[in-house]
Structure formats: C-alpha cells, structure tokens
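If I may wish for something, please sit down with the protein I am sending here and say whether tokens and residues agree:
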Amino acid sequence: MMSKDISSQEQLNTEIELLKQRIGELENDKEDLEILLDTITEHSTDLENEIYQKNQIMLKYLQQVKLITEAAAEVEGGTFAIASLNDVSAREDELGQLARVFQNMAEQVKIRESKLQQQVEELRIEIDKGRQQKQVAEIVQTDSFKNLKQKIQKIKDSRTKKNT
C-alpha cells in the first residue's frame, strides 16, 4: 500500500508542478494582456485627440468656406468688404488661393463699377448740355426772341448815335 501512496503522491506532485507551470504561464499572459490594454488605451487616447484636432481643423475650414459663400452674396448685394476675407486669404492652401482670387476679382469689379458710374455721370452731363443747347436753339428760333433781339439792337444803335 505504501507504494501506492508514494505513486499517488508522485502523481500529485507532478500535477502540482504542472499546475504551477500553468499558473506561471497564465500570470505571464495576464501581464502581457495588461501591457496590451495599457498600450491600446494610450493609443486610443492619442487617436481620440488626433481625431478631435482634425475635427477642429475641419470645422474651421468649413467656417472659412462659409465666409467665402457669404462674401459672394455680399458682392451680389453690393455690401462686400474686401478685408472680411483676410483671415481666409492668409491660408497657404487652395482655400486661401480662392479667397485671394475672390478678393482680387471683387476689387476689379469695384473699380469697373466706379468707372461705369463715372461714365454714366459724364453721359448725364452731356445729355443735359445737349438738352440745354436744344432748348436754347428752340428759344432763339422763336419770333418773340427775334423781336427782343431786334429791340436790343435798336437800343444799342441809338446809344451809339448819342455817344458820337
């Protein structure tokens, strides 16, 4: 019986050793998983921050696109202020290029509009002068004006005779 007990004891010892090895392996796996969890948590926080920052950049970009859209409506309404796009035009990307082109275009439109207004005013003056000359010509051609002119000439003639 003793040999059976020894044999059982040896089996138990072997099983205990195997269990200890398995516990050691599980503890190593646990440590690896904890390291993996920490790494994933750290990277997920970094990713979350990166996504947040990119989202903020996109929001600012979209706000500046909105500024250009509003500027187009202001040009149409005649209320556009070129400086309103200075922040957007300071960008070094395509949106900044678009804002600079838009500002230049709006400035050119403003200059052309000013020149056209000046030309319209000059044409009004010319039309008024032409109308005035036509009215004068009509007055000069009337019989009353001709009679008045003859009377003035007679008065001048009579003064000239008196003075001589």
Summary: Residues 49 and 89 are 28 Å apart (CA to CA). The mean pLDDT is 90.
